[in-house]
């Protein structure tokens, strides 16, 4: 996973929710851009959950970004 690949998914228009898969098997759902923030270097990100907990992730340990259908497509189905 490169920082550039991550930026492309994060800044896609329209935004599509995605799941971050980590090398250790953990997964993190990013429902909206408001639920994630990047460090200035771009190497680490913070993923926020609905319950106000958060996790700091090293992008070098991300194995996959699973991009989901956008909310508008889901609602239309």
Can you tag this structure with a few keywords?
77 residues, alpha+beta, 6 strands, 36% strand
Description of the molecule:
The longest helix is centred in the N-terminal third of the chain and has 8 residues, at 3-10. A hairpin with a 4-residue loop joins strand 1 (18-22) and strand 2. Strands 2-1-6 form a three-stranded antiparallel β-sheet, with no helix packed on it. It contains two helices and six strands. It is α+β, with helices and mostly antiparallel strands.
Q: Kindly provide the radius of gyration, computed on alpha-carbon positions and rounded to a whole number of angstroms.
A: 12 Å
Distance between the termini: 31 Å
Major sheet characteristics:
3 strands, antiparallel
According to DSSP, the number of beta strands is 6
What structural class should be given to the helix and strand makeup? alpha+beta
- The helix fraction, in percent, is 10-25%
Please provide the ordered H/E string of secondary-structure elements. HEEEEEEH
Number of contiguous helices: 2
Q: How does the overall form come out from the CA principal axes?
A: globular
Mean pLDDT value:
90
Q: Low-confidence spans: pLDDT under 50, at least 5 residues?
A: 73-77
Beta-strand content: 35-45%
What order do the strands of the largest sheet run in, or round the barrel if closed? 2-1-6
Give the helix/strand layout.
Blueprint: H1 3-10, E1 18-22, E2 27-30, E3 36-38, E4 44-48, E5 54-58, E6 62-67, H2 71-76
Structure, briefly:
It contains two helices and six strands, in the order H-E-E-E-E-E-E-H. By secondary structure, it is of the alpha+beta class. A hairpin with a 4-residue loop joins strand 1 and strand 2.
């Amino acid at each position: 996973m490169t920082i550039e690949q991550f930026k492309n998914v994060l800044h896609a228009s329209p935004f599509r929710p995605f799941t971050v898969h980590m090398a250790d098997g953990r997964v993190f759902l990013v429902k909206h851009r408001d639920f994630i923030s990047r460090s200035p270097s771009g190497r680490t990100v913070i993923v926020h959950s609905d319950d106000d907990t958060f996790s700091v992730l090293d992008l070098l340990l991300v194995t996959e970004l699973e991009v989901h259908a956008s909310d508008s497509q889901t609602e239309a189905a």
